[in-house]
């Protein structure tokens, strides 16, 4: 591992990074929220389905 070379590449990435606009941030937050809700619904459906299976949880 070459520390000076690695630090240089990290600083280059940080210089290229920029703060997202409000529109971009809200779109990413909305998509992430929908994903979390879908995973929660899927988990709930699996839980409910397992309660109907004999010998389930």
TrEMBL record:
<keyword id="KW-0472">Membrane</keyword>
<keyword id="KW-0811">Translocation</keyword>
<keyword id="KW-0653">Protein transport</keyword>
<protein>
    <recommendedName>
        <fullName>Protein translocase subunit SecE</fullName>
    </recommendedName>
</protein>
<comment type="subunit">
    <text>Component of the Sec protein translocase complex. Heterotrimer consisting of SecY (alpha), SecG (beta) and SecE (gamma) subunits. The heterotrimers can form oligomers, although 1 heterotrimer is thought to be able to translocate proteins. Interacts with the ribosome. May interact with SecDF, and other proteins may be involved.</text>
</comment>
<feature type="transmembrane region" description="Helical">
    <location>
        <begin position="28"/>
        <end position="53"/>
    </location>
</feature>
<dbReference type="GO" id="GO:0009306">
    <property type="term" value="P:protein secretion"/>
</dbReference>
<comment type="function">
    <text>Essential subunit of the Sec protein translocation channel SecYEG. Clamps together the 2 halves of SecY. May contact the channel plug during translocation.</text>
</comment>
<dbReference type="GO" id="GO:0005886">
    <property type="term" value="C:plasma membrane"/>
</dbReference>
<keyword id="KW-1003">Cell membrane</keyword>
<dbReference type="InterPro" id="IPR001901">
    <property type="entry name" value="Translocase_SecE/Sec61-g"/>
</dbReference>
<dbReference type="GO" id="GO:0008320">
    <property type="term" value="F:protein transmembrane transporter activity"/>
</dbReference>
<dbReference type="InterPro" id="IPR023391">
    <property type="entry name" value="Prot_translocase_SecE_dom_sf"/>
</dbReference>
<dbReference type="InterPro" id="IPR008158">
    <property type="entry name" value="Translocase_Sec61-g"/>
</dbReference>
<comment type="similarity">
    <text>Belongs to the SecE/SEC61-gamma family.</text>
</comment>
<dbReference type="GO" id="GO:0012505">
    <property type="term" value="C:endomembrane system"/>
</dbReference>
<keyword id="KW-0813">Transport</keyword>
<keyword id="KW-1133">Transmembrane helix</keyword>
<keyword id="KW-0812">Transmembrane</keyword>
<dbReference type="GO" id="GO:0006605">
    <property type="term" value="P:protein targeting"/>
</dbReference>
<dbReference type="GO" id="GO:0065002">
    <property type="term" value="P:intracellular protein transmembrane transport"/>
</dbReference>
């Amino acid at each position: 591992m070459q520390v000076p070379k690695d630090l240089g590449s990290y600083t280059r990435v940080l210089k290229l990074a920029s703060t997202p606009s409000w529109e971009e941030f809200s779109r990413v937050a909305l998509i992430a929220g929908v994903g979390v809700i879908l995973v929660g619904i899927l988990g709930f459906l699996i839980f409910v389905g397992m309660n109907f299976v004999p010998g389930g949880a």
